[in-house]
Design goal:
Helix content: under 10%
Distance between the termini: 29 Å
Radius of gyration: 24 Å
Order of helices and strands: EEEEEEHEEEE
Mean pLDDT: 79
Largest sheet: 8 strands, antiparallel
Number of strands: 10
Length: about 170
């Protein structure tokens, strides 16, 4: 069962830096081509753009020094390069922080905004696996599941044993 927790690598957003809004944006690259002498527009199938994640929130400290330390910890987490970004325990996307800004409200309270850009346009399942089966027997079922949030193509490789496939052998896929 999935649990909700925003994590960037090992840094847990929501502990030192409270999150007030999380926005996930997906877009397509689409060009429109008007058709002459008709009221239609040709819209080709657009490829997905990288996912964008915006996080806003507040960060507090017991005083200015503690607030400055909390901001420094958050900034270090953002500057490590590509990190896995989780919003629940079983899905992630590799992201890079695109922008980070903050504004002081008081000497122990600040608002912040972070914008991330993802490597892919979707989240991946955290427990992806690769299964290799040496030799199947009659009526064997291999379950295949996708716990991600996007339909992904599957790759099935079939290799004949060194001795070859016996004559009269039937292979069936459903």
């Amino acid at each position: 069962m999935a649990t909700f927790a925003i994590k960037l690598g090992t840094y847990a957003l929501g502990t030192e830096a409270a999150v007030s809004a999380l926005k996930i944006v997906t877009n397509r690259r689409v060009d429109e081509y008007p058709v002459i002498r008709d009221d239609m527009t040709i819209i080709p199938t657009g490829n997905m753009k990288s996912i964008r994640i915006d996080v806003t929130g507040t960060i507090t400290g017991s005083g200015y020094t503690a607030l400055r330390t909390a901001l420094q910890d958050l900034r270090r987490a953002l500057e490590t390069g590509k990190e896995s970004f989780y919003i629940d325990s079983d899905r992630y996307v590799r992201v890079l922080s695109k922008s980070f800004d903050y504004g002081f409200i008081t000497s122990d309270f600040a608002n912040y905004n972070i914008s991330f850009i993802g490597e892919l346009p979707y989240f991946l399942a955290a427990g992806t696996s690769y299964n290799a089966y040496a030799v199947g027997t009659s009526a064997v079922t291999y379950p295949i599941n996708n716990a991600g949030d996007y339909s992904m193509p599957i790759k099935v490789s079939i290799k004949a044993p060194a001795a070859g496939i016996p004559a009269g052998t039937n292979l069936t896929f459903e």
